[in-house]
Amino acid sequence: MSSKYNPVTIEEQWQKTWTEQGLDKTITDSSKPTYYALSMFPYPSGSLHMGHVRNYTITDVIARLKRMQGYRVLHPMGWDAFGLPAENAAIDRGIPPSSWTYENIAQMRQQLKRLGFSIDWDCELATCSPDYYKWTQWIFLQFFKAGLAYQKEAAVNWDPVDQTVVANEQVDSEGRSWRSGAKVERKLLRQWFLKITDYAEQLLNDLDKLPGWPERVKLMQANWIGKSTGAYLEFPIVGMEEKIGVYTTRPDTVYGVSYVVLAPEHPLTKLVTTQERESAVEAFIQEVSSQSELERTAEDKPKRGIPTGGKAINPFTGEEIPIWIADYVLYEYGTGAVMGVPAHDARDFKFAKEQNLPVKVVIVPQEEADKESALQAAYTEPGIVVNSGQFNGMVSTDAKQAIVEYAEQQGFGKARVQYRLRDWLISRQRYWGAPIPVIHCPNCGAVPVPDQDLPVQLPENVEFSGRGPSPLAKLENWVNVPCPTCGTPAKRETDTMDTFIDSSWYFLRFTDARNEQQVFDPAKTNDWMPVDQYVGGIEHAILHLLYSRFFTKVLRDRGLLNFDEPFQRLLTQGMVQGLTYMNPNKSGKDKWIPSYLVSNPDDPRDPQTGEPLQRLYATMSKSKGNGVAPEEVISKYGVDTARMFILFKAPPEKDLEWDEADVQGQFRFLNKVWRLVSDFTNQPREVSNQPTQLSKAEKDLRRAIHIAIKEVTEDVEGEYQFNTAVSELMKLSNALDDANCKDSPVYAEGIQTLVVLLAPFAPHITEELWHQLGNTESVHKQAWLKYDESALVADEITLVVQVNGKKRADLQVPAQADKAELEKYARDSELVQRYLEGKEIKKVIVVPGKLVNFVVG
Q1: Is 404 in contact with 414 (CB distance < 8 Å)?
Q2: Residue 689's pLDDT is what?
Q3: 559, 523 contact by CB (below 8 A)
Q4: What average pLDDT score do residues 574-589 get?
Q5: pLDDT tens digits, one per residue of 692-720
Q6: H helix and E strand count, the chain
Q7: Adjacent-strand bridge partners of 854
Q8: Residue 474: band (very low, low, confident or very high) from pLDDT cuts 50, 70, 90
Q9: Pairing assessment for the beta strands 480-482 and 489-492 based on DSSP bridges
Q10: If you average pLDDT over residues 668-678, what whole number do you get?
Q11: Which of 397, 414, 571, 647 sits at a 20 to 30 Å CA gap from 764?
């Protein structure tokens, strides 16, 4: 056996062998229980970063462990491959999006293979491939048939110079388009939505079925769904038939309404605006239309509004109140209108003070029920109802119910449960996405593309300029088709789907990735699903996970699935942080100084100005210049060292600080394991059958071996405390190093145990060492070890003996000794007798298994 550990050579050799043997292929032995281990699939940007390596290493350890524990494991990989960057590359470099994407996939696949993950590449999929998006389109049509896909007008970001729709991420902090620099406007377009609101209650309630999810992720989803219980109330418009509907969670304050506010884009705005207010209202609407939703609703921005001249009636009081429009009310939210109660809402109070609108108190604190005092701020707590007709004197929380019942009796309101969640806008006016499989016929309306005509393929001969309508809308020979129902000349839908659609079902396709006849065979999918362990970043806590849960429920209701939730356990791994240098006197991107420009890390200075730099750990990124390329680490230390460092440095859910010294520490540990096995294999010995009588050294070592099996198993089973599992492996290596019985069968057991327990963490070195120990089958096919309970029991313990609380001796005594025997061992010790001689023993304190303390006079 080579005396030197050469990671690169053995890693490449074993990766080749594993591929030839098909070691990582998903086995089909139905007698074994299933285990589905999945990392969130990556966007093919072209290169892996350390965040990817951490995510996939965590999942790989779990997959390898479960195989050794007797499961048939599905551990696939794919590519979330549609999206904007490929289209930008097409505009900037003149390369078709597909070419750019597939080149990046090839490069990243190579990188993943070099990292030795036990991925079944036979299941690989790319969401941009027609054989995948054919089924994405088929699923869209399932939603359409179920009445869950529909079109309506909705606002988009419009670039007036390039005459094109831009995504939120293409609008800078000043509201300008990233390409043309034009001020982005809001424009209404007819777009496709999925009716996720139909599933809001299920999505909320079923969070209780997910004990394996982090509480904070469940809370984020619950807040996003945002269930509230309140009332829908209608305010008649003076001089008109129409009414303004509002939703409120505070019906107890309705007698304090002093104005109502419409969203500027609300259809009623034009109706209620008086002639003399027309030009001012139109100018305000024009101004607001250029603002993004974020700008309009930002907490720190002043709330702006103007009166329309129109009046509404508060049906509870009969009073006429002014109708305003304001930038903070959005037509897409709730009813697109709100009631203004300045006395009991902080935002309304501020707005009313600025606009000189009346403030009417209708709830007061319990202790001030009889006093009248001017409000300095909105009173938003519960209290006693005042100035509210028949409801005066009620506790406000009780008045809510009473007022809603009264509104229902009078016909101007009703109780309503509402959700913050809105239907999912899936239309994208871009090329590189799955085309929406609908044909618009002047006679039949929106007609689904027949199943046999799927996929609706993206045409190749496309020009990318970044200007004008979607590239698809310009292709007349692609757009113009006969209606599948009546044959009339019709037009294809030119919008493509939001890329979140592709990632909302990919985990289902992995279970049957090569099926050309159906989206998946339900028998196979129901066998593997739900995913046992899902691993990915916290940034996907809301949208991706919520949409995946929604898709699962819809496909269940379409009879394809027999489970409610897609992911049983969720692990959100922490970020990988690098040592970062920052100049506090600079702003924006300029403040970050790449580490390669810092010549003296002990006294870091700005290379341009000479100013001292701050050192901190921050998430690795190109802009900060603090990244570490996986290839660098692998070429220097090997894949196994990189894995060991990632697993040892921090628990998986915590942020990890990259530290070269700690990487070297793990490299030294693997070298030590290599040396222990080398020394063992290089010394010829007769290994006899294990004798019944073990020496003390053998018993101690055997106990260390079985403690390691027990502790490592517990660490990897429960909360995935891989860092403490690695610590246990280090302890076992130390016990083997220190053992005085290296020719014993117990030592041989220890060496084999170390290699088997280390296998999921460091797969290449352990495979090499396993074969050096004379084994022919892969270490990764070995059964995970079980500890022997009897080996954990110590024959002897160390008894501490104290005199008047001061330690005077450590004695080795039988572990089973009772109190009387322990006291006798302590009294009989020569060391202790010295301190007891000639003294009266007043008291003896015995703590079984630990100590004896003599209290003497």
Answers
A1: yes
A2: 57
A3: no
A4: 91
A5: 688 889 999 999 999 999 999 999 988 89
A6: 26, 33
A7: 803, 844
A8: very high
A9: antiparallel
A10: 97
A11: 571
For residue 136, what are its two tokens?
Answer: 């994405």
| 124 has a pLDDT exceeding 80 | yes
CB 186 within 8 A of CB 155: yes
Model pLDDT, residue 427: 92
- Which tokens in the block code for residue 318? 């009969």
What is the chain's Cα-based Rg? 35
Rounded to an integer, the average pLDDT of 783-804 is 90
The model's confidence at residue 687, banded by pLDDT at 50, 70 and 90, is low
pLDDT, residue 849, reads 86
pLDDT in tens, 3-38: 799 999 999 999 999 999 999 999 999 999 999 999
N-term to C-term CA, the chain:
66
Q: Provide the pLDDT for residue 467.
A: 83
- In one-letter notation, the amino acid at residue 655 is D
pTM of this prediction? 0.88
- The pLDDT assigned to 690 comes to 55
Among 264, 424, 257, residue whose Cα is nearest residue 328: 264
CA 660 to chain centre: 28
Complete DSSP assignment for 560-623: S-S-S-SEEEEEEPPPEEEEEEE-TTS-GGGGEE-GGG-S-TTS-B-TTT--B-EEEEEE--TT
Residue labelled with tokens 């660490």: 715
CB contact at 8 A, 764 and 639 = yes
Give, as one character, the DSSP assignment of residue 308: E
Q: Which helix (H) or strand (E) holds 236?
A: strand 227-236
What is the per-residue pLDDT for 155? Answer: 79
User: What is the Cα–Cα distance from 21 to 502, expressed in whole angstroms?
Assistant: 33
| % of the chain with per-residue pLDDT over 90 | 79
Q: 530 preceded by cis ω (within 30°)? A: yes
Q: Which residues, other chains included, contact 597 with Cβ-Cβ below 8 Å and sequence gap of 6+?
A: 607, 625
Q: 731-737 — which CB contacts under 8 Å span 24+ positions?
A: 731/704, 732/704, 732/705, 732/708, 732/757, 733/669, 733/672, 733/673, 733/676, 735/700, 735/701, 735/704, 735/705, 736/676, 736/701, 737/672, 737/676
Give yes or no for a contact between 484 and 197, defined as CB atoms under 8 angstroms apart: no
Concatenate the DSSP letters of all residues of 414-434 into one string.
EEEEEES---EE-EE-SSSSP
Q: In angstroms, rounded to a whole number, what is the distance separating the alpha carbons of residues 691 and 671?
A: 32
Question: Cα dihedral sign for 341, 344, 346, 352?
Answer: positive
Question: Cα separation of 388 and 344, whole Å?
Answer: 14
Q: Where are the alpha helices (DSSP H) in 379-493?
A: 396-410, 476-479
Six-digit token string for 300: 């720190």
Minimal CA–CA distance to 129: which of 354, 424, 458?
Answer: 458
**CA-to-CA distance for 406 and 410, rounded, in angstroms?**
6
Beta carbons within 8 Å of 368's beta carbon, 6+ residues apart: none
Nearest to 428 by CA among 510, 358, 378, 493: 493
350: which 2 tokens? 């501020």
CA-nearest of 561, 587, 588 to 505 is 561
Q: Write down the pLDDT at residue 1.
A: 53
Query: Rounded to an integer, what distance in angstroms lies between the CA atom of residue 729 and that of residue 647?
Result: 12
Q: At 311, is the secondary structure helix, strand, or coil?
A: strand
356 CB contacts (<8 Å, ≥6 apart)? Answer: none
